[in-house]
Amino acid sequence: MNHRPDFLIAGAAKSGTTILHEWLGLQNDVFFPVVKEPHYFCFKGLSADSIGHGVDAQYAAQMAFDPQAYERLYANAAAGQITGEASPGYLYFPGVAREIHDFNPQTRIICMLRNPVDRAFSQFMHHVRDGYETFRDFAAALEVENERIENDVWWGYHYRTGGFYAERLKEFFDLFPRSQIKVVLFDDLIQQPQDVLQQTCDFIGARCNSWPDPGKQTNAASGMQRVARFAWQARLSQQHRGMGRLMKKLGVQPTGRICGMAPPKLTSPLRQRLLEGYETDIRTTAKLIDRDLSHWLH
Questions:
Q1: Which of 164, 184, 225, 230 has its CA 20 to 30 Å from the CA of residue 124?
Q2: pLDDT value at position 174?
Q3: What is the pTM of this model?
């Protein structure tokens, strides 16, 4: 019985990790722990109250911070199953590639990449949707990002910074053979879902017995038509699902006409300004993964 992961979905956040996790979880050969994002290799030796200000307490409490807790996540895997987990912070924090390699140099790594501007805005909208972001203007949130980083605010609020991929990718490429690393573009995941799933199953050595619904996009926060008027509405609905269902039944759910409001927008000038900042990293990333990413720049 394998009490360690055979593969990891390493991130990036808001790049399709949840979708791929769900699709792979449908395969009989694949075992995932109940905890989707244990983030062990980011926060080993820490605790739930020391990983950043503003992190959701329930989310943090599920993480694994010591080797015994992490290996227990795989205790229910059946003999012969291929084990894995998905923690999008693995492609954000420096040194994680080394931690994974020291733990098991045979681990297969799946890196998922998305246009960094779309990724940043999607992450911002995810926090707006769930009531954790105090700003309703994306530009305003970006203005305070460096201050948030300096003040040890949870990395989920590092919207712009989370889109620089090249340095972290190079850490993995320097430690693992290319045959153990698979890069999946969000564009391909959306446009060719069955191909991506089959290729990923082949990569981890699993038989593909179940196919995804191509119309389903889990966590697609950036496409919301309305958001909660007040942050407490969204948090209440998110953290207490029964209350959320009741609000929906009464017609006063956070995203409804009564309690909702128009969502923030990503303006063309802001998009262009962000792309200019990402351009060098995008070109470096393209060379690292040997893919044409020029469409991200237009």
A1: 184
A2: 98
A3: 0.88
98: domain CATH number is 3.40.50.300
- State the total domains in the chain: 1
Q: What is the mean pLDDT of the chain?
A: 90
Q: Look up tokens 């053979």; give the residue.
A: 177
> Is 180 among the domain residues?
yes
Rounded distance between C-alpha atoms, residue 269 and residue 275, angstroms:
10
CA angle, residues 10, 147, 115, in degrees to nearest 5: 40
Domain-embedded: residue 232: no
CA atoms of 162 and 278, how far apart (whole Å): 11
Asked if residue 174 is part of any domain, the answer here is yes
Task: Name residue 35's amino acid.
Answer: V
User: Strand ranges (DSSP E) for the chain?
Assistant: 7-9, 30-31, 82-86, 108-113, 181-185, 227-228, 260-261
Cα–chain-centroid distance for residue 234? 20
pLDDT tens for each residue of 68-84: 999 999 999 999 999 99
Q: Which long-range contacts (CB under 8 A, 24 or more apart) does 231-240 make?
A: 231/131, 231/132, 231/133, 231/134, 232/131, 233/131, 233/259, 234/128, 234/129, 234/130, 234/131, 235/130, 235/131, 235/132, 236/131, 237/131, 238/130, 238/131, 239/56, 239/58
160, part of any domain: yes
**pLDDT for the residue numbered 263:** 76
CA 54, CA 18: separation in Å to the nearest integer?
22
- Provide the domain limits for residue 60: 7-224+263-297
